[in-house]
Amino acid sequence: MPYTVGxxxxxxxxxxxxxxxxxxxxxxxxxxxxxxxxVYDDEDLERLAGILTWRxxxxxxxxxxxxxxxxDEVTELSERRRAVxxxxxxxxxxxxxxxxxxxxxDMDPDTIKAVFDGFDPDSHAAEAEERWGDxxxxxxxxxxxxxxxxEQWQTIKAEGDGIGDRFxxxxxxxxxxxxxxxxxxxxxHRAHISRWFYDCTPEIHAGLAEMYATDARFTEYWEAxxxxxxxxxxxxxxxxxxxxx
Length: 245
Prior knowledge:
Blueprint: E1 3-4, H1 5-12, H2 16-25, E2 31-32, E3 38-40, H3 42-56, H4 61-68, H5 73-101, H6 109-116, H7 123-132, H8 135-145, H9 150-172, H10 180-196, H11 202-214, H12 216-223, H13 229-244
């Protein structure tokens, strides 16, 4: 039974933009009608299910095609397992660090874990300190975050997720990352960091944008809001930094 791209999107929850992206990559190429309309069949839907399964396991798109076409699944799964174990080890170290930081605060480790959901809210400050050696920014971030309770962290996470969701909507809408709308949202993100962590200048923000695109920890965070969001956010921040001169 043939399905249009809209029908496939509705049945699977995969955005039309993502389906077009898979087509452009040669990962999921449907038939085309005489009017150049994409038409998917049941085999295409099965292949899409395979793509989504591998994506859920964290496998990059450039490797999924080979796996679906008979590649070495055992080796890939073993690599994924090692990556997950390494991630769990990092989370365990994070929990130990949080336990130390929470001494004297009215927040227990389970509450912190629920609020952060595996994400380190100090990662921006830590990365800035490592990249620029800005001890004032690091000291400021330590002072601020050390005084926050669970309500403040919940607010921080909600604000950050809201910004991420809006970036995802801009990507799905095909908005130019150098547009005023995208740059204004990037500026809102910069203000969010400055408000809660440290004074994030446009220069520092541009440096963070580079890390978002190259550091897997940041890429994993942004891609949770939609495929292609990391590159979009990086470009929007760079454009906003240039705009601010």
